[in-house]
Amino acid sequence: MMPPLARGGGGDEGEAWRRWAVLVSTVWIQALTGTNFDFSAYSSALKSSLGISQEALNCLATASDLGKAFGWSSGLALLYMPLHGVLMVSAALGLGAYAAQYCCLIFLNPSSAAGSSFAIPYPLVFFVCLIAGCSICWFNTVCFVLCIRSFSASNRPLALSLSISFNGLSAAFYTLFANAFSPTSPSVYLLLNAVLPLAASILALPAILLCHTQDSNLQSVPRCDRRVFLGLYILAFITGIYLVVFGSFTTTGSAAWVILTGAMVLLALPLIIPACSSCSYVDTHSIDSASPPNHDDPHKPLLASNNLQNESNAVTEKTMEQQVQRTSCGTILDKGRLVVLGEEHSAKRLIGCLDFWLYYTAYFCGATVGLVYSNNLGQIAQSLHQQSQLTMLLAVYSSFSFFGRLLSALPDLLHSWKASFARTGWLAAALVPMPMAFFLMWKQQDGSTLVVGTALIGLSSGFIFAAAVSVTSELFGPNSIGVNHNILITNIPLGSLLYGQIAAMVYDANGQRMTVTDNHTGIIDTMIVCMGMKCYSTTFFVWGCITFLGLVSSMVLFIRTKPAYASTAASRSSCKHLTKFPVNRETP
């Protein structure tokens, strides 16, 4: 047998390099594949080019979100294809879908000077928007699986949060690219949406090929892992600040290229981590690595079970019984509540779980509303005579969404400092700013209020987007996350359709049919245009009420799941105690 010290040699250093290289590759992919966040940058041009109403434009935004309802297909593809194959299929789907939209906007529309006499059928445009949304979901699935396979359970939430955080910066990165290439043409966003995800996939491919085909269960973890994560989060924070400062205004010429180069340098800087990751290694005895891995079972759970867990089951059940007995809120808060975290839920069991529907409602009435707000940001700015500030508003939403995603790692960082708090409680706290923002914009609509409201909505929705993966894994089992999380995000197309339709109906009801000339393309068309506070005032009030409902749902979920988090913390404490002082069961 190889001695413990020998295991901490070059093999572990190679393992560390592989893990960090994979994490950096997911950061690149996420940073350049959030193509749905820049929809508002070209939505007005698309609306004018196709000659459609606000309701029809909302349906196109819904189509992109509806593609996420087919996210389960990425999990199915992983059963038959390697990760890198799924990644390249995702890039091909995005390339085809956005290239078709670009052609629709530039070459094939009869209103365009460069166009032909052939008009693109609206259902076809709807279909390519759906395919574009599906490609985003496939990219996300690849990144989730890479992080889960490459990191132990103790570090996995940190890796997921960091990777997902950069997805929130996509709109800011795309704005910098657009400023450098063609700042006056909205269609450049569609061209970038087609090309940049493919380029990111090709750049990340070598690191992804290094990823193990099975989930990892590290027995030796470098002492400096948490310090490395802290360094990565600090670097990510600096990147976000950079994009807030330099991405909030339109630049042209050499200045735009200098700013874009600086952003790309910051995005590439995490590469120094794999090169400098040779640290001292120790055999860990945490919950996720307290027992040797079962090499005979290739489908070992992601939250690895062990013998110590069996010994702590009695402690868990006793703790839960005592906490439930002390609760006096009746069956509403007690019936069917989760007993332990990480228990696997099949799709059938998930649908019958009350906690899942509370979670679904919190997401549906929270983060999804924030996403619909970002889709309508172009029309909102236009109606309030803030069209010239759209670039800045996109950068604000994108950057604060990014900061919200970074903050989703707080539960894991505080847990390492012995200050743990139920993640569902953080979810409820993250929802507080959203109804405040909508009610604020309902009462007062001006440039400064719009900026503040956009920042609060981006911060809140970003946190929920990033935290949702870990919450789904903890509440309903990590092995089932591929199916369960895609069931959860079916709320996005439903919410996009419902909330977007509310906004579109209010907009069209208060608008007037006008002849509009596009200053950039020269397109002349007749369309409904609404100007003034009346366009979105009612919508903001309705959205505020909906997000308040989401806040209430998240608070009930927190109350119901708090005992499960407490019992799991007690189990972990018991396991660590048993690990430090093992009982010798061998007979003399």
Automatic annotation (TrEMBL):
Q: Which residues form the NFD4 C-terminal domain?
A: 343-563
Residue ranges constituting the Nodulin-like domain according to the UniProt record: 19-274
Q: Which SUPFAM superfamilies match?
A: MFS general substrate transporter
**GO cellular-component terms in the record?**
membrane
Superkingdom as given in the UniProt entry: Eukaryota
Q: State the membrane topology.
A: Multi-pass membrane protein
Ranges annotated as spanning the membrane: 86-108, 120-146, 158-177, 189-210, 230-249, 255-273, 356-374, 426-444, 450-476, 488-507, 540-559
- Where in the cell is the protein located? Membrane
Arranged from A to Z, the UniProt key words for this protein are: Membrane, Transmembrane, Transmembrane helix
What is this protein called in UniProt? Nodulin-like domain-containing protein
This protein's species is: Urochloa decumbens
